[in-house]
Amino acid sequence: MILNYGYLRVTYNRVFNIMHRSTFLCLDCIRSFSILDSPKVRCNDLDGVIKKIKQLVLEGKDNLQFITDFDRTMTKSYSETSFGILEHHPNFPESVKIETGKLVKKYLPIEVDPKFTVEEKIPLMVEWWEASEECLKGLVLDYANFEAAVKSANMPFREDCDRMLKILNQAGIPTLIFSAGIGDVIQCAVKLHSFDYANVHIVSNFLKFNGDVVDGFKGPMIHIFNKNEHAIEGTAYFKDVKYRKNVILMGDSLGDADMAEGVENAGVILKIGFLSSKDLTLFLPQYLSKYDIVLLEDETMDIPLFLIDSIVKQNLP
Predict the structure, then answer these.
(1) Which Pfam families does the entry link to (predicted)?
(2) Active site residue 162
(3) How many domains does the chain have?
(4) Global pTM value
(5) Which of 19, 55, 150, 157 sits a CA distance of 20 to 30 A from 317?
(6) Catalytic (active site) residue 37
(7) What's the rounded Cα separation, in Å, for the pair 287 and 25?
């Protein structure tokens, strides 16, 4: 019998590496990480979160896609929204600002009111977005001044958002920015901050123009409760993520938690929710029912960055 020692050595090394990694990623090791012990981190099912993290790391970056909301998820909790930033355009009429402000006062309390079911909220959110679209129609908003509007707005990104997006790009992890806001503003902000990497795809409400005159939204309207991957079916991006079954998802609203709906052959979906409400007694239980990890008053990307970095390197410190 002739033994191929070279083959045996390679096989042994592969088996050893797998066993070493599995041992290294044991639940006790993950549970001991101080970053998960932060008072800002809340989990409804810690054991379930630990198992998801372990699986995400073991299956690596090539099985991962990243889905995130934009307003007050990528940006800080006190940031202006993309709708609000549009109003910084030098040609935006004061009279329209008053009208859109009335809509916010009417519909925003309904969006966040726990006494309404999602089914009850959806038609009201459609009313809100349709009314907002009507307010925008006919406005003369030259595209050249969108950059000025973004620059003049209060729109800081969460700490280390730039580093997180850079790692996602370097690792070739498809990144979907999914927003019910104004896509033109988001696209401009992403470019201004040099986040417009080849792996980044934006799905949002882009304005339709006739010259410089706004003629409504392009394509189907996206509101807070219909954001999911069904909206990108048939696109080149959808084909890119077809075989990436694992997802890290980030959002700041209850509707954002469903953005991964429509992922084909879904594997592990880890949902991270940012909660900045002062009334934690009211909102925390709802967020914990929708998100795996809830971050309280956290203006950083520490947890998402930790997870992505661990997956890319396929280890946990």
Answers:
(1) UMPH-1 (PF05822)
(2) no
(3) 1
(4) 0.87
(5) 157
(6) no
(7) 27
